Structure formats: structure tokens, C-alpha cells
Amino acid sequence: MSEVLELFKKLQVLSVTTKIHDTAGWDSGKLSDQYCRAIIPSMYKKYAIRKVFGSARNSGVLFGKEVPAIIIQNEGKDIDVYPHNVGARRETIIDFLRSQLSQRK
């Protein structure tokens, strides 16, 4: 987790707007709403998040609890979510943050 926070700080230095939310006190309804937001970009981009944040029967139960998540926005629209699976490969939050830093240097 400390590497993720460090990468976020580096992005902020590069004038990338970031927000970190501690979901520890959130009720299940609020977490469920956020998971529903994450589903939309995953459908458009055709990758899987269901088993990343739960199981086929209990999708989203781990979202923001045991499995941290980030939702990427552009001009107020949700456009991506991490982590997610593309085929057999998992793309992590750290993968995304590192790629953003390398693109902006």
C-alpha cells in the first residue's frame, strides 16, 4: 500500500488530480454504489472485474474492503477501474500508476 501512496504523490507533483478515500467506515450500500460505477467502464472496455472483487455469485463483496480499487475519471466520467483482468492477466493499481508516471515524464 505504501508504494501506491508514493506513486499517487508523484502524480500529484505532476499536477494530476487524485483523491484517496478511506472506505473503512463506509456502509455496504455506499460500497455497492461505487462498485456499480466500476462495472460500466469494465463493460465498455470488455474486461473482467467480477472475480477480482468477489466471485461469480457474490460480485463486488470485496470491493474497497479486502481489495482496494481505483476508478479513473476524465472530465467527470468514469473511464476505467483497477485492478481488473484482461484475459488471464491481472492489471493492478500499481501497473496503472507506473504507466501514468512513465507517460508523463
Explain how this protein is built.
This protein has helices at residues 2-13, 28-45, 93-104, and strands at residues 70-74, 77-82, 84-86, 89-91. By secondary structure, it is an alpha+beta fold. It has one domain (2-104). The strands form 2 sheets. It has a two-stranded antiparallel ribbon with strand order 1-2. A two-stranded antiparallel sheet has the order 3-4. The protein is globular and about 40 Å long. The mean pLDDT is 93.
Please summarize what this structure is.
The strands form two sheets. Strands 1-2 form a two-stranded antiparallel ribbon. The chain contains three helices and four strands.
Structural features:
16% strand, 4 strands, alpha+beta, 105 residues, two-stranded antiparallel ribbon, 40% helix
Q: How would the blueprint of this fold be written?
A:
Blueprint: H1 2-13, H2 28-45, E1 70-74, E2 77-82, E3 84-86, E4 89-91, H3 93-104
Helix pairs in contact: 1-3
Which runs of at least 5 residues are low in confidence (pLDDT < 50)? Answer: none
User: Number of domains in the coordinates?
Assistant: 1
Instruction: Give the number of DSSP strands.
Output: 4
For the termini, the CA-CA separation is: 23 Å
- Strand neighbour order, sheet with most strands: 1-2
Broad structural category: alpha+beta
Alpha carbon gyration radius:
14 Å
- Count of separate DSSP helical elements: 3
Quote the beta fraction. Answer: 15-25%
Give the helices and strands as they follow along the chain: HHEEEEH
Write down the overall mean pLDDT: 93
Largest sheet composition? 2 strands, antiparallel
Q: Outline, from the CA principal axes? A: globular
